[in-house]
Design brief:
CATH architecture of the largest domain: Orthogonal Bundle
Structural class: mainly alpha
Number of helices: 8
Largest sheet: none
Number of strands: 0
Strand content: under 5%
Number of domains: 2
CATH topology of the largest domain: Arc Repressor Mutant, subunit A
Radius of gyration: 19 Å
Distance between the termini: 42 Å
CATH superfamily of the largest domain: Winged helix-like DNA-binding domain superfamily/Winged helix DNA-binding domain
CATH class of the largest domain: Mainly Alpha
Order of helices and strands: HHHHHHHH
Length: 165
C-alpha cells in the first residue's frame, strides 16, 4: 500500500477531475486496496499496476455517477423569457436516448467513449491509462460509433436529429 498509494491517488484524481475532497480520495483509495485484497487469489503479481489502475478507474467513475447532482436547489433556478423550453425538453429526451444506447455497448467501449467525449481525454491519454495501443483505442471507438449509429437508425433516429446531442 505504501508503494502504490500515490499511484492510485493520482488515477482517482484524474478520473474524478478534482470533484472529490481529500477525504473522498482517501476513502476511494482504501476501497481500491480492499477490492484488490478481495481479488488477490486470482491476481497475477506481474500485472499489479494494471489491476490497481483498472480498479481505481472503476471506483472513480462509480463515485462520479453516485455523486453527480440529481437536483438543483430552487435558489439556483433562473427563469428567463428567452429560454426555449421545448428545445430544452427535446435536448433532455435525446440525451436520455443517448444514455440508453451507450448502455448497450460493452463496458470497456462505453468507457472509451465517455473518456473521449465527456472527460475530453486524448486518444494517447486513454491508451496510456487503459493500457492499450492508440490504434486499438481508435479502432474500438470507430466500431462503437458505428454500433451506436446502427442502434439509432434501428430506433428511427437520423443523423440530423442526433446532431443536437
Amino acid at each position: 500500500m505504501k508503494r502504490y498509494t500515490a499511484y492510485v491517488g493520482t488515477i482517482l484524481r484524474n478520473v474524478t477531475r478534482g470533484q472529490t475532497t481529500q477525504e473522498d480520495l482517501e476513502e476511494l483509495t482504501a476501497d481500491v486496496f480492499l477490492a484488490l485484497w478481495h481479488h488477490a487469489p486470482e491476481m497475477r503479481t506481474e500485472h499489479l499496476t494494471g489491476y490497481l489502475a483498472s480498479i481505481a478507474r472503476s471506483k472513480g467513475y462509480n463515485w462520479l455517477r453516485k455523486n453527480r447532482p440529481e437536483t438543483m436547489p430552487i435558489d439556483d433556478v433562473v427563469i428567463s423569457d428567452d429560454t426555449d423550453v421545448s428545445a430544452q425538453a427535446e435536448q433532455a429526451e435525446l440525451a436520455g436516448i443517448v444514455q440508453e444506447m451507450l448502455a448497450q455497448l460493452p463496458e470497456q467501449d462505453r468507457e472509451l467513449l465517455l473518456r473521449f467525449y465527456f472527460y475530453r481525454q486524448s486518444v494517447r491519454e486513454i491508451a496510456g491509462e487503459m493500457h492499450m495501443k492508440e490504434s486499438t483505442v481508435k479502432t474500438r471507438m470507430y466500431r462503437s460509433r458505428k454500433k451506436l449509429r446502427q442502434l439509432f437508425t434501428e430506433r428511427g433516429y437520423g443523423y440530423e436529429q442526433m446532431e443536437l446531442v
